[in-house]
Amino acid sequence: MKTVQIKISSEELASLKGNGYKLCFAKKVGDNSYNVVWHAFDNYLSQNTFSWTPQYELFGINTFQHDIRVQAQTNIVKIGLGQTSTLNASGVLENPISGGPSIGITMENDYGNIHPGLNQTATGIDGRVSSDPIYVEKKTSIQGNASMIPIENILVWFQQLIETSTMISQIIGTPTEIDLTGTNSATRLYSNGKWTTE
Fold first, then answer.
1. Which tens digits make up the pLDDT trace of 73-124?
2. N or C: which end of the chain has fewer CB within 10 A?
3. b/e string for 79-112 if b means 16 or more Cβ within 10 A?
4. Given a cut of 90, is residue 184 above it in pLDDT?
5. Domain tally for the chain?
6. φ, ψ (nearest 5 deg) of residue 5
7. pTM of the full predicted structure?
8. Domain limits at 75?
């Protein structure tokens, strides 16, 4: 399990809440830009804990569209690292089997044009466990294999008028990127409009 603690100074907390900002998280996949809001919380407090486990789900959608919430259009299958699921000619994702990069998740596409996507399980700052989108491939995947490699980096920032699962083209605000590839926990403080490591 990976865990981050986000601390917010009292002055910043009052300002952020008063102006309708949400505490947002996004997850890195491969060398790609962060492009889905994994979670956006409005019930944050001075100390907030967010954690996740390497439990994934694979799905496909027909289009990538900025500022629209991800809605899986294929069925959703549970899948692990080093596994492959075939999207058959009917557009149904089959049960995963071993195969593909050991650090990645692969869709074998026998269907045609599709945008593969990934969900990941997390425990939110409110203690609720859910599996939500972390990534959607911007470019259409045609027939063949498409592999996605989750990276243990997350982006944290504050933003107005944003929802969990929204597809994004850019981050509005001042983000901090947290690298947990070599550790299981990290703490950041947001104070005076800046992020610092604790």
1. 999 999 999 999 999 999 999 999 999 999 999 999 999 999 999 999 999 9
2. C
3. beeebbbbbeeeeebeebeeebeeebbbbbbebe
4. yes
5. 1
6. -110, 125
7. 0.96
8. 2-197
